[in-house]
Design brief:
About 35% of the residues lie in helices and about 20% in strands. Helix 4 packs parallel to helix 7 and helix 7 packs parallel to helix 8. The protein has nine helices and eight strands. It has an eight-stranded mixed beta sheet with strand order 1-2-4-3-5-6-7-8, with helices on both faces. It starts with a strand and ends with a helix. It is an alpha/beta fold. The chain has a single domain, classed as Rossmann fold, CATH 3.40.50.1820. Pfam families: Esterase. This is Esterase family protein. It comes from Paenibacillus baimaensis.
Amino acid sequence: MAFMDCHFFSESLGVSASMHVILPQSTTGQIGMESNVIKKKHPTLFLLHGLSDDHTIWMRRTSIERYAAAYGLAVVMPAVNRSFYTDMAVGYKYWTFISEELPALARSFFPLSEAREDTFVAGLSMGGYGAFKLALSCPNRFSAAASLSGALDIASIAKQRDPVEFQRIFGDLDQFAGSRNDLFQLAEEVAQGEGPSPMLYQCCGTEDFLYQDNVRFRDHCRALKLDLTYEEEPGSHEWGYWDQKIQNVLNWLPIR
């Protein structure tokens, strides 16, 4: 695998932005690394960080480079600060950045496939919310999405944490339900639509403080008969759990 620490100017944010990128590489002499290149334009996983992290965290806390190598999978890991992957009410347009600008820029810099069947998204905690938001908002562009310990029920989480911060991100929280930021609403629209529906993978540890929120979203998706794979087992909100589960995600992805 090749690793790039990429810094570039974002038109939608109006500031310089950052991402880590790992790309498949055909090698024969590299020790301890299985390498696989499937095609000239690589299937791609957009891998999203959590609330207190940045674009470096997946490389620092897991062996994502080693795991992805066997699948011939490119991985793009962008930084979005504490934005919840949203055009913030007070702040920057991170939804525009993550949904429109970043994929286009990454594909202009690197040989990444533009095909829906080769495009996936995953994330942990806040990034789990962002992954499902991307796939459910843009089901014609993402074929699969995975949430690890995702912050999926924002209305519930905002009441438990700092509502002032969530108001700066989402605006009036009384108007959140049914909005374009509400995953429950987005899931209903995908279920009722005539277009493609992404495969969804969701996991959460039973000792995680977000467990009940995950159960509510799981039950909502099951009632809508969405294509959801759900896993739970003992575990909390920590990197040992996510390092294990991201391996499950890569094995689950429909990589051609």
